[in-house]
Amino acid sequence: MDAWTGHDVPTLPGAAVAPRLFDSARRAPAPSAPDGVATMYVCGITPYDATHLGHAATMITFDLINRLWRDAGLEVRYVQNVTDIDDPLLERAERDGEDWIVLGMRETALFREDMEALRIIPPQHYVGAVESIPAIAGHVRELLAAGAAYTLDDGTGDVYFAVSAAPSFGYESNLPREQMTVLSAERGGDPERAGKRDPLDPLLWRGARDGEPAWDGGELGPGRPGWHIECATIALGLLGDTIDVQGGGNDLIYPHHECSAAHAEVLTGAAPFAGHYVHAGMIGLAGEKMSKSKGNLVFVSRLRADGVDPMAVRLGLLSGHYRADREWTDDVLKAGQERLARWRAAAAAPIGPSGEGLLAAVRESLGNDLDTPAVLCWASSSDPGSRWSVVLLGIKL
């Protein structure tokens, strides 16, 4: 699958270091100190409704990490997936009387356009679940052979991962079992399903059902993959047994990232799967989290169609700290538009003697767990650093 078109990222003067990032497993910031090559896997969209501002905020977060690593002189290997087969996609296609393949292709194309407009550096590998199914099925067979998975006895052909095979299960989310069970039920799991050895065991392979697409799984029989094994397989195949950052929204901490890490660690014997588990906050509207189920989404494509500059959207989302759940309001957008206008006016002037000093200060704040509010506060009242500093924020003046 092709990603979107990128843009040149200039080399900036002075010295930079890799950022400190909050790790959900440690529950504290820690240096991200890759040795020459930095690896990052970010969970992408399920393409049935793209791209709302929650998606945009998440992708901007990891774009900043990408830019800071590059600024520190690191080679970045970045992989993002597309969950182009899953229950929500099939349900939306059925609801709208549309072919699920056409729906997925259209929404993925729209996501690419939005990412390009927001100046997100594209991943080196942009990978769909469907194209990864042979490798996913291979990993499911490996887990079965190792006794870390089992097939239900109900004739469905469904295969589950045994969380008991992962002794450290739970270390990433740091949640009690009771809360894991609740979140599993809310986020695509089936803790009450009969025949499972443990309510928290996640699905690896769904046996074929009438009216649903299915693929050859070899000894598994026909079916399609579970969600968590998809990301584990793609990351392992393209980035290696361990990675520097596994990223996404904070709604992925459990069960998705906990389970995908457990799959990877059992498959390879290497732990932890990620040096940092980094999670972006949710974007809300009128006091509620933006979500498809609530129908309160603000789409990047709609804002663009209304003539809103994507750089103002980017600045609006950068005005809050990436880990904070925060509101999107007309005032947030207006502030982004006004800031963009000021910066563009200031960019016409030559970079003054304060430029390098401000760049160093911007690097320091961004290196402290991506403290964008501090950066925007300084830049509101001083030489924006000018063309140098805004490069780190990904803003086109």
What does this structure look like?
Helices cover 41% and strands 15% of the residues. The chain is built from 13 helices and 14 strands. The chain has helices at residues 53-71, 87-96, 100-117, 133-145, 177-186, 227-239, 253-268, 300-305, 310-318, 330-346, 354-367, 372-381, 387-393, and strands at 20-23, 28-31, 37-42, 75-82, 125-128, 149-151, 159-161, 203-207, 223-225, 243-249, 274-280, 283-285, 288-289, 326-327. Strands 5-4-3-10-11 form a five-stranded parallel β-sheet, with helices on both faces. Strands 6-7-8-9 form a four-stranded antiparallel β-sheet. A three-stranded mixed β-sheet has the order 13-12-14, with helices on one face. α4 crosses α6 (227-239). The protein is globular, with a radius of gyration of 22 Å.
Helix and strand topology:
Elements: E1 20-23, E2 28-31, E3 37-42, H1 53-71, E4 75-82, H2 87-96, H3 100-117, E5 125-128, H4 133-145, E6 149-151, E7 159-161, H5 177-186, E8 203-207, E9 223-225, H6 227-239, E10 243-249, H7 253-268, E11 274-280, E12 283-285, E13 288-289, H8 300-305, H9 310-318, E14 326-327, H10 330-346, H11 354-367, H12 372-381, H13 387-393
Parallel strand pairs: 3-4, 3-10, 4-5, 10-11, 12-14
Antiparallel strand pairs: 1-2, 6-7, 7-8, 8-9, 12-13
